[in-house]
Amino acid sequence: MTEPVPAPGAAAAVRRALDGRHDLTAQPPPPPPPGLRAGERGLRLGTLAVVAMAAALVTGRPWVLALAVGPLVLLALALRSGPRPQAVTAEAEVGTRRCFEGERVSVRITVSYEGEAGPLDPGVTPGHGVRLDHLAAGPHHVDLVLTAQRWGRWTLATVDVDVYDRGGLTRHTVRVELGEIAVFPLPEHAGLTPIPVRLPQRLGEHTAEQRGEGVEVTGVHPYVRGERQRRIHWPATTRRGTLQVHRFAAERTADTVVLLDVLADVVDPVTGLSSLDETFRAAAGLVRAYLRTHDRVGVVSVGGATRWLRPGSGQGYFYRVVESVLEVRKDLAHRTEGLDLLPPPALPEGALVYVITPLTDQRIFDVLQQVRGRANPMVVVEVPAGEPLLEPGDTEGELALRLWRADRDAMRFTLVERGTAVVTHRPGETLDLALAPLLRGRIRGGNR
């Protein structure tokens, strides 16, 4: 994707194109009326002429009419500037429809018309989560550079292009909708991939507890006719007096499902971080880490309509997994109505389930109970949502905060007592710091 170099005065052009509509709650103006309209220059000159003639009639002084001569002459000269543009159309070419947070998207709008036209004057209303960084207008093209600020599925922008005649008296406005853009969250850095006790019978990169044809030695055993002689362990053979050969562990792949809690979006009152943002970034890091080890990864989001994608593998599957849950945030619309049952194909038997949640909505415990009822090994990754702010001297608030902390400690204790691993991922830290304690042993599943 090519990024144009901002020309001198580009910042002023951006401010003019935005016309004050640069906040997240800005909405595009009403659709422009079809056909020709008076331009700003024609309105100014006409207003001056009318005011001068009205002043002459009111005051009864003919010399005041001389003030209208200048605007009328300019209007007459502008009317003879050539044929006005007709049949105005515009087409937009967007560089990419999928990108990550912080990446730029280039857009070129091509304007076609019949006749002669003056300069193009674009007005831009960026979508939510999108920022306009550069704008350049030529005789037939308008070039934009926009930056995706937050993950989600956003309306890219709405552009109204005013096409003036050579004299600047009339204009024809054409609206261009740039469509939607899918912005992926930046994955958290993760390299550790904890595994459950039991792994599927598929070749992979994880060392299983069963015997197999892997590369990790787990012990020795007496020689059996037909085994390879190169596997003989001579020190053990000399010590025991009989042929002993190496015993190897099998190498298997893992099935992993990342379950996202989108029941609520809690904003930390101190840092301003969104729990939904941190949840999706942690999920993207987990998905990428397991796909790199050639495991199968699926995703489930609970909250509103349950969205899920059955486990798959391959680096290209990362984009399918992330894109399947982007509908959770579409133009600042966060859908959290109701709670559906988890579909059986979404949680394969024996799959390791990561539940990423801020633990702020009690309904998530119903989901955890469903996962536990299917005997899937489960890890709860808590995303802290911050603590409520208190005013100095608020004794009742301090007591409520202590109760709030005790309630959260009780929730974690209950999960641990039921055999569920609970780890905490704090914003700003790598995901490996949260997953490291899980490497002490293998994750066990529940009971049906």
Automatic annotation (TrEMBL):
<feature type="domain" description="DUF58">
    <location>
        <begin position="221"/>
        <end position="376"/>
    </location>
</feature>
<dbReference type="Pfam" id="PF01882">
    <property type="entry name" value="DUF58"/>
</dbReference>
<protein>
    <recommendedName>
        <fullName>DUF58 domain-containing protein</fullName>
    </recommendedName>
</protein>
<feature type="region of interest" description="Disordered">
    <location>
        <begin position="21"/>
        <end position="40"/>
    </location>
</feature>
<dbReference type="InterPro" id="IPR002881">
    <property type="entry name" value="DUF58"/>
</dbReference>
